[in-house]
Amino acid sequence: MRWFWIDRFTEFVSGSHAVAVKGVSLSEDHLHDHFVGYPVMPNSLVVEGMAQSGGLLVSEQYGFGELVVLGKLAKVKFHSCVRPGETLTYRVRVDTIRNDGAAVSATAHVGERLHAESLLFFARLGDANEALQGERLFRPRDLQHWLSLVGIFEVGVHQDGRRLKEADYPLEECPANA
Amino acid sequence: MASDDEIFEKVREALVDALGVDDDEVLPGATLQGDLDAESIDFLDIVFRLEKAFDIKIERGELFPEDILTDTEFVQDGKVNEAGIAKLRERMPFADLTKFEAEPVVQNLGQQLTVQDMCKFVAHKLAA
User: Fold this and answer.
1) What pLDDT is recorded for position A135?
2) Residues spanned by the domain of B109
3) What values do phi and psi take at A13, rounded to 5?
4) Domains in chain A, ordered, with CATH?
5) Whether the complex's predicted ipTM surpasses the cut of 0.90
6) Which residue from A121, B24, B57, B65 lies 20 to 30 Å from A144 (Cα-Cα)?
């Protein structure tokens, strides 16, 4: 299974907010087990969608160069069930960001219907983690591929309206991972 | 300037929201990690809430000087040396370090940080 829980960004404003969408489809294997005869999008994966949307928004503030991990769900509420054929819209907003982590508010809607709301905390692991683990936990090339798939550089802008440019985020492959 | 009671109420609210504990568990003598089960990521949550509640800016390492605790100049064999203790006293004038000084094992510092220390930290910031 590929771990992509957003299909694409429709809005991405550096350091501020972003909107991403995810179409829920019966062609997704996991829906046939959750639940047999009554497919419902697992709420844990809705959280993952909000976390991926928010995580990339936060990661951009660190130049996409470092690992940002979901550290804590400070709050999460669900209000409905999401069925195949529906489209989830994730809206994420940076509440606070600093050099060691960030707080992000997120909602998930289906059309006008509020499905979920959450407050997420992201921790920036930085170089300390690399030294601790002895290796990088993600390949820059994979991240670059992901950013391109979800269209960050197609819709992304700075707060003054200038476009985000891929060339401004040099994701160089380190020799060990090349 | 906020009174001690006002500071305590706001600190309590921040801890209740950040740690999911009940109001009556947040007593001045309660330790954050021992009694209230705070984990390291919770400190970021708590710091953000305190910044908002008191309109203050808390820099990394200000509440909990992890840089001292990981510096080999101040830590030997898992214990903070005299120079380290002096540095901690300087950086944490809000905390009662007496108990820690008796057994200055690095891990003990976080374990011994209390709600009262947190209130004193905020008062110290507001007075600055």
Assistant:
1) 65
2) 4-127
3) -115, 115
4) 8-177 (3.10.129.10)
5) no
6) A121
